[in-house]
Amino acid sequence: MVMQDTSSGGGAPAPGRPAVGRAGVFQELLPMAVWAADHQGRVWLWELAAQDLLGWRPEQIIGQDGLPLLVPECNLELAGELTARSRAGEAVVGAYPVRHRDGHTVEMEMWISPIADPTGQPGTLVIAAETSSVGRMRDSLAALEGLFTQSPIGLALLDRELRYVRVNDALAAMNGQPAAAHVGKRIGEVVPGIDPSLVESLMRQVLQTRHAVLDRRTGRTPATPEQDRVWSSSYAPLTSGNGEALGVIASVIDITEGQADHLRVERARQRFALLAEAGARIGTTLDLRQAASGLVQMLVPQLADTAQVMLLEEVLAPDDVGASTHDLLHCLATTKPALAPSGRPPAEVTYRITPGSVHATVLAERHSRTVPLPLPVLNAVTPDSPAAGLFGHSAPGIARVIPLTARGKVLGLVIATRTRNEQFDEQDTVLVDELVARAALNIDNARLYAGRHQAALTLQRSLIKPLPTVPGLELATGYLPASSENEVGGDWIDVLTLPDGRTGLIIGDVMGHGIRAAAVMGQLRTVARTLAYQNLPPDRLLHYLDIAVADLGESELATCAYAVYDRTTSSCLITRAGHPPPLLADPNGTIQFLEKTCGVPLGVPRDASFETEHVVLPPGSILVLYTDGLIESHDHDVDHGMHQLAHFLSEPSQTLQETRDRLLKHLLPTSPQDDVAVLLARPR
Description:
- It is a single chain.
- Helix content is 33%, strand content 28%.
- With 684 residues, the protein is α+β, with helices and mostly antiparallel strands.
């Protein structure tokens, strides 16, 4: 048998040369299951994607009667008929459901062929593919065929040796050669008049980097040997499912007759690409300064030489609105002026707006203006600032001053300048204004989010009270809010000195984020404190707290753990409602998670009462209560986090405060995705 090696090198092997190939089409595009049965129907071969598609491992099915295992009862008669015909020497095709190992059926199309079994008697060979995969491949091939036969754009497929594999009629007409005359040839053999070495160099770059490139080429082809033609081309990598480069896809458009139109279209394409990039760079962040910096980066150097994004101080600090913030602009992001002797005006400097200046006019009228440089000087509020006079050293040129408006509100100004010998034309001003308008909404979203985040954080922190002094019990707590890209959650901690002399330890987590979660947390904390002061046992406290959560609405859920420490018995009663299990480290370093009892989260309908676990806490042992943010993240699952926590607590620091600090530092990423609360208690 002669096989083609497609694993490296690109082109076809020499005729008649045996080679071993990679069945990539069966692995990536159309997974094929192959199995064979002997004359008694027993499976003796189970190969390729059979296990992936049907769930049976070879050792589970080889030697078994295949028909009862693989064919549903309703199709046994048809399968038996096809099998009998195959054993009689006939190759047949069929389509019927095949039973997966887990019991569900898989619709498959199959080819059943006669084959000699290991004893030499008539058997059957089945090659099967999932019907849906066959359909997708059929549709994909039809789409590819339609593209090649109907597209007015010249299209070509080239292998890794940059030899033509296929071209469509449009490209054949451009090149003045029949499509069949291209196959197997290099570009220079078909159209030597277009600098083929440079074209092939770009294509090799595509194969190496896996990134498409654009090209504009002038030359002559056999179609028009006496006339120069101009083409716009793109070369894109053709890759397999695992990223292996198979060749290059080339598309070619003859733009000779419309150079002016082409230039306009190309410019529009670049501008649309810039807008799309701006959406990705600015529209995907809720960080205010990152959004402002993204806008500056989109403007410079593509459209301007310098740019500044400046927000009104009264917008940045709405709670401080008054005479002190009136007519002030705060520079959030800026670029280095090309010709400024004083260097770069730093961001995060506040300037006073000069009355009657272009800045004041644009803010008042809410209309952009193009004005000559230099601009009026903006004086910094802090006189000793490195940029005490912004624009005081502006080089000659032109500036576009645009109001930053969103949701009917003026947020500030964006100033884009050009010191090059090129004015802002009409298309430039439209694009600059459009970029600013799109960025304004994203900047406002980031501003509003930052305000909400800070409000929730302030509410959260206002509810965290100082720890009481408890005789015979060392305590340490820690709370870390989510990073600025994530909303504050509803975590809370409380330590109570109960009327009967015992100590109550409470930790909870309201599901959800933002101000609402923090507000619900505040209500539950108050209810929990009130119930605890009634000396209720832990299970009854959570029972009534569950009723309180239900009264807040169907959408509210929370987890909670409540522990009551009794110094006289050196023991603790603990009840949990959907909360992660507390960790207990004894003085010898033995670690255990208290997982015996756990009810459903608060707010979830339940059939049983909460249960209480009794735990002995000898002097020197450490009890750790925590929220799920400590042990769970996008990088690892809960089990991994619990393992890390146990490993860390096996060697605690001398004081609980040191243990807490090291715990938060080593277990959490630099930007936690969720709030984290932790409470440590150690009897003395």
